[in-house]
Amino acid sequence: MLYWLTELSDGGDFFNLFRYITFRAGGAFLTALIFGFLFGRPLINVLRRKQGKGQPIRDDGPEGHFVKAGTPTMGGLLIVGALLTSTLLWARLDNGFVWLVLFVTMSYGMIGFADDYAKVSKQNTDGVSGKIRLALGFAIAAIAAWWGTYLQPQEMQMHLALPFFKDVLLNMGFFYVPFAMIVIVGAANAVNLTDGLDGLAIMPVMIAAGTLGVIAYAVGRVDFTEYLDLHYVPGTGEILIFTAGIAGGGLGFLWYNAPPAAVFMGDTGSLALGGALGAIAVATKHELVLGIVGGLFVLEALSVIIQVLYFKRTGKRVFLMAPIHHHYEKKGWSEPQIVIRFWIISVILAMIGLATLKIR
């Protein structure tokens, strides 16, 4: 929205700064951060009054979680609100990729909100049927996959870019759309599974979003893509502003979500942010790199899949409890130990993901 101020510029004044994506990304970060600080406490107070007993706690969960009873959920509203405000204010609204990632984020946020509302209103952990959530998630992902394909250069449509290789595009034909759908739905649900401890999900999301934002900026600049031997996708640079909003809104939320959490993110936030990561990966043709950058989320999701499949086959468990962060809780690790160590893993994976830009 503020980009229109460039029309007032003569090329050498303050208004000219709004032409630069990096300047507007900084503005988006600060806007989202201030939004979080301003509206965090009022939102928590409203959620506490409306929800009463707060988010239901699983009966079969770790014993230490019962002390969290009464903590309100739907804190993802704070992140999504900060992200939406900062993006609409600072991004170019004539950019299709901006609307693509916003569409996925808001749509998955609404699914999560419905699930959170069902849980707190019924005071059980069931929420919306898993089949309904998946069906809606795949429907949204299908729209996003076709949309992203339409926005990309013709020579890249229905193609998968392979990291570590120069100028290699794998033509998947029609199968690219289902693949992109799985990337988006998988990312959303993987982040959702990770959100089980205070502060555990939000920092890795911010790290992954920041990394993907740098990649989006590089992929959207022809000079960077020529130097790094990347595939050029015009317009993706504006996604950096969106990811800056995630970082600012995430920090504002973490202020209240740090142990002991005053509010939980809930599915409202985890599905929205996970879907956003998947949409960015599809938009920038870095779907496989998302598996590296978001490796922590992949690990969490795999731990659940392995646990379920192995238990059905043998009646035994691989992990003491899944997702894997609960396994380490059962082994005696404290919650801060798990959270900080998983943050460290996220940083390492992000550095490896960034390295794929140069290793060709």
UniProtKB/TrEMBL annotation:
<feature type="binding site">
    <location>
        <position position="192"/>
    </location>
    <ligand>
        <name>Mg(2+)</name>
    </ligand>
</feature>
<dbReference type="InterPro" id="IPR018480">
    <property type="entry name" value="PNAcMuramoyl-5peptid_Trfase_CS"/>
</dbReference>
<dbReference type="GO" id="GO:0051992">
    <property type="term" value="F:UDP-N-acetylmuramoyl-L-alanyl-D-glutamyl-meso-2,6-diaminopimelyl-D-alanyl-D-alanine:undecaprenyl-phosphate transferase activity"/>
</dbReference>
<dbReference type="Pfam" id="PF00953">
    <property type="entry name" value="Glycos_transf_4"/>
</dbReference>
<keyword id="KW-1133">Transmembrane helix</keyword>
<dbReference type="GO" id="GO:0005886">
    <property type="term" value="C:plasma membrane"/>
</dbReference>
<feature type="transmembrane region" description="Helical">
    <location>
        <begin position="168"/>
        <end position="188"/>
    </location>
</feature>
<feature type="transmembrane region" description="Helical">
    <location>
        <begin position="200"/>
        <end position="219"/>
    </location>
</feature>
<keyword id="KW-0808">Transferase</keyword>
<dbReference type="InterPro" id="IPR000715">
    <property type="entry name" value="Glycosyl_transferase_4"/>
</dbReference>
<feature type="transmembrane region" description="Helical">
    <location>
        <begin position="239"/>
        <end position="256"/>
    </location>
</feature>
<keyword id="KW-0133">Cell shape</keyword>
<comment type="similarity">
    <text>Belongs to the glycosyltransferase 4 family. MraY subfamily.</text>
</comment>
<dbReference type="Pfam" id="PF10555">
    <property type="entry name" value="MraY_sig1"/>
</dbReference>
<dbReference type="GO" id="GO:0071555">
    <property type="term" value="P:cell wall organization"/>
</dbReference>
<keyword id="KW-0132">Cell division</keyword>
<feature type="transmembrane region" description="Helical">
    <location>
        <begin position="338"/>
        <end position="357"/>
    </location>
</feature>
<keyword id="KW-0961">Cell wall biogenesis/degradation</keyword>
<comment type="pathway">
    <text>Cell wall biogenesis; peptidoglycan biosynthesis.</text>
</comment>
<comment type="function">
    <text>Catalyzes the initial step of the lipid cycle reactions in the biosynthesis of the cell wall peptidoglycan: transfers peptidoglycan precursor phospho-MurNAc-pentapeptide from UDP-MurNAc-pentapeptide onto the lipid carrier undecaprenyl phosphate, yielding undecaprenyl-pyrophosphoryl-MurNAc-pentapeptide, known as lipid I.</text>
</comment>
<dbReference type="GO" id="GO:0009252">
    <property type="term" value="P:peptidoglycan biosynthetic process"/>
</dbReference>
<dbReference type="InterPro" id="IPR003524">
    <property type="entry name" value="PNAcMuramoyl-5peptid_Trfase"/>
</dbReference>
<protein>
    <recommendedName>
        <fullName>Phospho-N-acetylmuramoyl-pentapeptide-transferase</fullName>
        <ecNumber>2.7.8.13</ecNumber>
    </recommendedName>
</protein>
<feature type="transmembrane region" description="Helical">
    <location>
        <begin position="288"/>
        <end position="311"/>
    </location>
</feature>
<feature type="transmembrane region" description="Helical">
    <location>
        <begin position="263"/>
        <end position="282"/>
    </location>
</feature>
<dbReference type="GO" id="GO:0046872">
    <property type="term" value="F:metal ion binding"/>
</dbReference>
<keyword id="KW-0472">Membrane</keyword>
<feature type="transmembrane region" description="Helical">
    <location>
        <begin position="130"/>
        <end position="148"/>
    </location>
</feature>
<feature type="transmembrane region" description="Helical">
    <location>
        <begin position="74"/>
        <end position="91"/>
    </location>
</feature>
<keyword id="KW-0812">Transmembrane</keyword>
<dbReference type="GO" id="GO:0051301">
    <property type="term" value="P:cell division"/>
</dbReference>
<dbReference type="GO" id="GO:0008963">
    <property type="term" value="F:phospho-N-acetylmuramoyl-pentapeptide-transferase activity"/>
</dbReference>
<dbReference type="GO" id="GO:0008360">
    <property type="term" value="P:regulation of cell shape"/>
</dbReference>
<feature type="transmembrane region" description="Helical">
    <location>
        <begin position="97"/>
        <end position="118"/>
    </location>
</feature>
<keyword id="KW-0131">Cell cycle</keyword>
<keyword id="KW-0460">Magnesium</keyword>
<feature type="binding site">
    <location>
        <position position="267"/>
    </location>
    <ligand>
        <name>Mg(2+)</name>
    </ligand>
</feature>
<keyword id="KW-0573">Peptidoglycan synthesis</keyword>
<feature type="transmembrane region" description="Helical">
    <location>
        <begin position="20"/>
        <end position="40"/>
    </location>
</feature>
<keyword id="KW-0479">Metal-binding</keyword>
<keyword id="KW-1003">Cell membrane</keyword>
